[in-house]
Amino acid sequence: MSGVSIDVFPHGELNTILDADERVVWTGRPEYGRRFFQPIGTERTLLISMVFGALAMWSTLPFIPDKALFGRVDAIWVYGAASLAFIFAAMWSAHERQTVLCTLVYFVTNKRSIVCRRGRNWHAGIRLYVVSNAHSATYPYEVLLTRPHPSLKIGALMDQQELNPFGFGLSHLGQPVHWGKITVPVAFEQVPNAAELLEMIKSNLPHD
Q1: All structural domains of the chain with their residue ranges
Q2: What does the alpha-carbon distance between residue 116 and residue 29 come to, in Å, rounded to a whole number?
Q3: What is the pLDDT of residues 35-75, one digit of tens each?
Q4: Its pTM surpasses 0.85
Q5: DSSP characters over 95-155
């Protein structure tokens, strides 16, 4: 089972986050998706759908009679409004994904896997949210085949509200469609060396 714990700190000093006998063996960040124009996962699917939908919508314009009850001028207004809605939705999903991924830092220590997420709390104060899972021989770690780079699932939350800095938590539209349907994965997202990290975690499992 996942033994995920959540700690919140008013600052991000590494010596505060780690235990006295804990040492960092790897640190990293998402390798893709931190830039605005790097759509991934569900976001990319929605973006492609909106582009084709807009093209199909505007392609009907020449076939609408000027003097019809719903004339060409009316269609231009409606199509324009729909297109602006598509653009706004695309920009918002990109902003959401960038906001989450740009504030993530990953750690593997000799004792646990850690996802750090910096964000504001409900009082607008900046906090460091530390989500960690102690290395376990029984937890089903999983390399997730996300694109363009794989991700490594290191834990799970029962509900997104368990970790919800003001704005967003760990979830964003750049994640695959099935994420968060039952539990919310805690993962090292978009890391090319996901398989190597899994072996690194296994090599640091506690000895009985």
Answers
A1: 4-31+103-203, 41-100
A2: 10
A3: 999 999 999 999 999 999 999 999 999 998 887 788 889 99
A4: yes
A5: HHHHHHHTTEEEEEESSEEEEEEEEE-TTS-EEEEEEEEE--SSS--EEE--SSS-EEEEE
